Amino acid sequence: MNSADEIYRLMTEKLAGIISAADDQFLEDLIEEDAAVREKWEQLSMISIPPPPAPWLEVIDFKPKRSLGRIIMTWSAAAAVLALMAFTAWKWDTFFPKKQAAPRMAIVIPDVILKTAGAPDINLTKTTGPINIGGKQVINKDNTLFLNTGEELPTGTHSLIVPQGKSFEVALSDGSVVTLNASTTMDFSFSFKGNSREITLNGEAYLKIAKQAGKPFLVHLPNSTVEVLGTTFNINSYNRDLVKVSLVDGKVRMKAGKKAVMVKPGEQAIFNKDDASLDTQPFNATVELGWQKGLYSFSDTHMDEICNAIFRWYGVQASLDRPDIASRTFTGLLDKKTPLSFLLEGIKATTGTDYYFTADSTLHFK
């Protein structure tokens, strides 16, 4: 039973806490007796697997009345896949000869850009410290643009563009803070005049909205709008036809056409353009909010969606060689610092989907 495949399986099960007593004893004996296995186990066991989040947030697959045991098993399964991703590198390097990698071009990740009305663009990645906007100075520091300085900045609508592979934070003039995920654009004003505060968002962002009595905060999304008085929530509009708003605290109202719903903490509002539905349901915080902590979560995610995620996180174009691959699903938890190769080997090991790169650095799943 001491083949590479069997050792591989037992180690991932042990890390996830789902190994049987008999297999655990067998593996312990093997680790003690075999120096090579012991070395690899020590390397693997150093991988950090994040703990489950707070109980009210651990609602997975939106199924009611989940037992504690089922929740633990679901988290363990995700942890096992994370371990599998890292361990795959050892398995292949140790037991199979290395192949010459396909030639790849260097991947260049674009910079964060602020497009100001009637003025030149500002590169916020390369320009840090005090920056000049319309003759006034604001601070760009620690990946955050501070617009709450009290300065009278230029009027008009401005755009903040966060490219793939990056994230960025903005402290707005009213004290609200918006953290934008990769491949996200926000259109906004430097100051909010009138009876409302309004921004337009395409992509994903986490918002902490400052309370202002009688001056609601409106977030315009593809096909819908979110009205906020003062709250913390996440918006995901990467898929313009399936917009999700996940509320952490406070209260928001989401409107789409003639429909509207009130969202409570721990709930998620989802607008589906295909059937014009607007519903609420519990959400899994690891899946929806983990990106802020550098954790990317897949839960029965289809391969075509994974291609989009790979571009957002790594800046690598990915495609499927055959239409039937799109229906394959993958579940796993990935740290942002994990190399793309670990994710690809994890997908290959669990779904049987192989991959290769072409000379133009495009990733193909076959």
Q: Mind explaining what this structure looks like?
A:
This protein has 366 residues and is α+β, with helices and mostly antiparallel strands. The protein folds into three domains: 4-95, no CATH class; 113-287, Sandwich (Jelly Rolls), CATH 2.60.120.1440; 294-365, Phage tail protein beta-alpha-beta fold (3-Layer(bab) Sandwich), CATH 3.55.50.30. It contains seven helices and 24 strands. It has helices at 4-16, 21-33, 35-44, 68-95, 285-289, 303-314, 340-351, and strands at residues 113-115, 122-123, 129-133, 136-141, 144-146, 158-162, 168-171, 177-180, 184-188, 197-202, 204-208, 217-221, 224-228, 232-236, 242-249, 252-256, 259-263, 267-272, 277-282, 295-302, 318-320, 329-335, 355-357, 363-365. A ten-stranded mixed sheet has the order 3-4-5-7-8-11-14-15-18-19, with no helix packed on it. Strands 2-1-6-9-10-12-13-16-17 form a nine-stranded mixed sheet, with no helix packed on it. Helix 1 (4-16) packs antiparallel against helix 4. The radius of gyration is 23 Å and the shape is globular.
